[in-house]
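ok here's Gfo/Idh/MocA family oxidoreductase:
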Amino acid sequence: MKKVITYGTFDLFHEGHYRLLERAKKLGDYLIVGVTTENYDDSRGKLNVQEGLMKRIENVKNSGLADEIIIEEYEGQKINDIQKNKVDIFAIGSDWLGKFDYLREYCEVVYLERTKGVSSTQLRAENNGILKLGVIGYGRIANRFIIESKYVSGVNVEGVYGPNPEALNKFANKHELAFYETDLDSFFDKIDAVYIASPHLTHYEYIKSALNRGKHVLCEKPMVLSEKEATEVYKIASDKKLVLLEAIKTAYAPGFIRLVSVAKSGLIGQIKNVDATFTKLVEGNIRELQAHTAGGSMTELATYPLLAIVKLLGTNFEDVDFYSYMDEEKNIDLFTKINIKFDKAIASAKVGLGVKSEGDLIISGTKGYVFVPSPWWKTEYFEVRYEDFSRNKKHYYKFEGDGLRYELAEFVSMIHKGYYQTYKLMPNDSVAINSVIEKYLKGKNIKKI
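and the structure:
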């Protein structure tokens, strides 16, 4: 008897799950299905799972395809299960291609073709269903986003839109998407919500087009490049009762959320200064270094440190000035220091594409301070420190993968629950961040070094 084993969360059991089990079943005589526990899903960064373990097991059982159902509880369990059950074939969806090659030491590994573009209409009526998501853009961040989306339950990336059919076809095939479109109206007809990952200068028009077609929008940072544009698109979203969310992954990460709460709790007294840095060295003929695509350190990186500043000190700043090291030939800033004055506090941010610095975050208070080491924007650890170092306390949190799963999970959750704002990044936070970038782009209070 040939035994086959496969694993999954099987949340909101749909046609794609059924077809995968059906294909796995055909590989042998006896199919074992492993269903993940909530704790294991959490430990591996699987977010937004809507159904409990027993309901998911019941769904797999009701498919009639599983001869045996087991529970997957920990990393490395697959090796033990395969050996204990004398399994001949391990089968998994092709979107995990190469991930489980290490199991070839124990049995045959088969990657099953993924069902493209599935979304059960019955499930859409119940439990809010599977959200059909489309992507505008096919660059580096879009590629990373689709990989991260596999860790978020309740959503499926269906297709991609852009101006280049050849590039779109390649992107769609790589990620096994159901479709690609060069016509924006046709693209919107096939989706419920959109993730915008196109060049900065195109965001504003794409956001308006999507909202006016009744689509929820998750847009890469910087969402737009002016305070007026940010205010306008948030108003459109509010009037139409749609979710509009700026994709600043740090804002939705568990560690950063807890960091803000701890810093503002009074443990370090009144916050009087915030210093945040984000730099990376890049070179070549890339978008980030081109003025005509709104390149430069401010537009590319400033969103992150500005996020920390507005979440810790608020949005009512009194004055902003900038010091920049420029690439005069390309007319872009390779390094900028931002100084922000509040009523009773100050802040500074450093961003750079051509200057390297320590990427830490320091929050200074009247009783102590918080230190977050580099890379602070992927908050996994921070320490509350005092004059009496015996009182110091370290905090540790998980930051899974590239972090894009956190923004997508928040986006999907808001849509399913009917929330149009989240405390993690309020519209006024986003507007304030974009207003600082606008001041810089308009040349206000800039001194060159």
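+1. Confidence is low (pLDDT under 50) at residues 119-128.
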